[in-house]
Amino acid sequence: MLIDQLKSDNIAAMKARDSVKRGILQVVIGVATKDIKEPSDEVVLKSIKKVIGANKETLENSVNPDLEKENKILEEYLPETLSTEALTSLFEDFINTNEINKTKVEAYRSGDQKSFGFLMGNMVKFIAGRADSKDVKVMIEKEFNTK
Q1: Per-domain boundaries in the chain
Q2: What sign has the CA pseudo-torsion 131, 134, 140, 142?
Q3: Nearest residue to 86 via CA among 145, 144, 136
Q4: What is the per-residue DSSP string for the chain?
Q5: For the residues 42-46, what does the mean pLDDT come to?
Q6: How many CB atoms lie within 10 A of CB 70?
Q7: pLDDT of 81 strictly over 80
C-alpha cells in the first residue's frame, strides 16, 4: 500500500537526515491517517494532491525553494497521468459502459448543461485519478460537443 511506502521512505529520510523530505512525508502521512489508521491508496493520493495544492497556493504568494522541493518529492508518488489518446479512449469506454451515460452525453450535446455535472463527476470516478480533473473537463467539452 502507498501509506506503507510513505512510512518506509519517511524512515529512510530520517536516517539520511533529509529534513525536507522527512517533514513533507510526515505531513502527508498525518493528513492521510487523520481519520483512518490504514488509509487506502485512493485516500493517500487525495492527501498528496491536497498538500501539493496547498504548497502551490503558497508559492503563488511567495518564493520558497523548500516548497518546490516538497512538491517534486510528492509528485514522485503520483501515478503517471494519461496521455490525450488514452484519455480519449477512456471517454469512449465511459460512454459505452451503460445506457445512462449514452443518454446523458446526448442530452449534453443537445444543450442540457445539467448533464455536464453528471458526466464530469462520473468520468472523474471512472478514470480513478489517472488524469487531472481540468483535463477531463476540457476533454468532455471537446469530445462531447464535436460528435
Answers
A1: 2-75, 84-146
A2: negative
A3: 136
A4: -HHHHHHHHHHHHHHTT-HHHHHHHHHHHHHHTSS-SS--HHHHHHHHHHHHHHHHHHHHHS--HHHHHHHHHHHTTSPPPPPHHHHHHHHHHHHHT-HHHHHHHHHHHTT-THHHHHHHHHHHHHHTTSS-HHHHHHHHHHHHHH-
A5: 88
A6: 21
A7: no
Query: CB neighbours of 118 closer than 8 A, spacing ≥ 6?
Result: 104
Rounded CA-CA distance 124/142 in Å is: 16
CB atoms within 10 A of CB 97: 12
Residue written as grid cell 503520483: 78
The count of C-alpha atoms lying within 13 angstroms of the C-alpha of 70, restricted to the half-sphere facing its C-beta, is 24
Angle at 116 between CA 104 and CA 112, to 5 degrees: 65
Assess contact for 13 and 22: CB atoms under 8 A.
Answer: yes
Buried (b) or exposed (e) across 20-40, using 16+ Cβ within 10 A?
A: ebbebbebbbebbbeeeeebe
Q: To the nearest whole number, what is the mean pLDDT of the chain?
A: 86
Tell me the angle at which helices 133-146 and 84-96 cross, rounded to the nearest 10 degrees.
Answer: 60
Q: What is this structure's pTM?
A: 0.65
Of the candidates 98, 100, 82, 96, the residue with the CA atom closest to the CA atom of residue 139: 82
